[in-house]
Amino acid sequence: MNTAATTTTDEHTDAHDHEHHDPRLAHHFDSHQQQFDTGKLGIWLFLVTEVLFFSGLFGFYAVYRSLHPEVFLYASQFLDTMLGAANTIVLLFSSLTMAWGVRCAQLGQTRGLLVCLLITLGCAAIFLGVKSYEYTEKAHHGLLWAGMYVSPEHHGEQHVEPESAPGAAAAAALETELEHAEKEEAAAEESHDNDDSLFEKTKATLSYMTQVLWGVIVLSGIALGVLIKNPNKKSLATIAGCFLVAALGMQLGAYASIGYHTFGHAAEPTHEEIRMAETVPIEYAEQTEKIPEPALAGTFFSVYFCMTGLHAIHIIGGMIAISWLIVRTVNGAFTTYYFGAVDFVGLYWHLVDLIWIYLFPLLYLIN
């Protein structure tokens, strides 16, 4: 009799607890503080593995640079310091907005949190837009990883200096040089006539990228306008909004890259500019004292694309996580006692920004 009464009471208590259980608190935690502390420990362990991962890359960089300093000194001059600095400022600003968003989540300021997350997502998109321009320009110059590297100085061609050749050999060498110069001039003119210059290639690629982005902007904008009117489609509307913000950010980065690429160049480039642009980047062509090209110059770009490419993948991962936070914010998931997810993603984003702060001087500021 007593056993039956006890069992009935226990079932009633369990049902009552289940009915009033906070859906934000997982069943295997006793309190929100315990849940937050456990999540904080988990994200720090994950960040330690990320640090170990990039430590291997930085270690490889240190060893290779100590063994071949001339490679880094030569190849780093082909990186655009201004674009690297601009991306650094963008990421630093995104860290500010992310930290501000965490504070808004702690204070229960949902609107402020949403704005900060959208700005952070836009900054990440701008960063990728600028990197896409940098990668495009490197590809057109042939400045790729070791197996795909093409010397900007046509290193494989052998030329005899007329001054160092005696007697009849000097005349033959001079004639060879003149013929070679005429061939280069004819090739440059033909390339320019066919609109196949480096500048035209870059503009065509960027133009194609902007067209694709405009398509994404229009489609996501239409989807956002349709879905936002339906209260039951709030999550889908938020996803469409994330696509819209990301595409707008990348579009801004693409147009900024186009403006930067054309800034300071005449509308009708001179014959010398056309000729030099077909062989070497303009920044290198304008140098009065050039650094001699080492034999392993392409290995630097293997390091460059490996480290910056992996960092860009982490940026994309952060954008996915931030978009997830935006969806949850719109659905009202975060409160003053439940904001762990925002804090955890913020820690990840700060690490990604910190890695770039190390990459920027190690790759772009060697000279």
From TrEMBL:
Keyword annotations from UniProtKB, A to Z: Membrane, Oxidoreductase, Transmembrane, Transmembrane helix
Single GO biological process annotation from the record: aerobic electron transport chain
InterPro entries tied to this protein: Cyt_c/ubiquinol_Oxase_su3, Cyt_c_oxidase-like_su3, Cyt_c_oxidase_su3-like_sf, Cyt_c_oxidase_su3_a-hlx
Residues in Heme-copper oxidase subunit III family profile domain copies: 40-367
Localization in the cell: Membrane
Record-annotated membrane-spanning stretches: 41-62, 82-100, 112-130, 208-228, 235-258, 301-327, 347-366
E.C. designation(s): 1.9.3.1
Topological category with respect to the lipid bilayer: Multi-pass membrane protein
Annotated Basic and acidic residues bias: 9-20
Any one of the GO CC terms: membrane
Name the record gives this protein: Cytochrome c oxidase subunit 3
Organism: Gimesia panareensis
Gene: ctaE_2
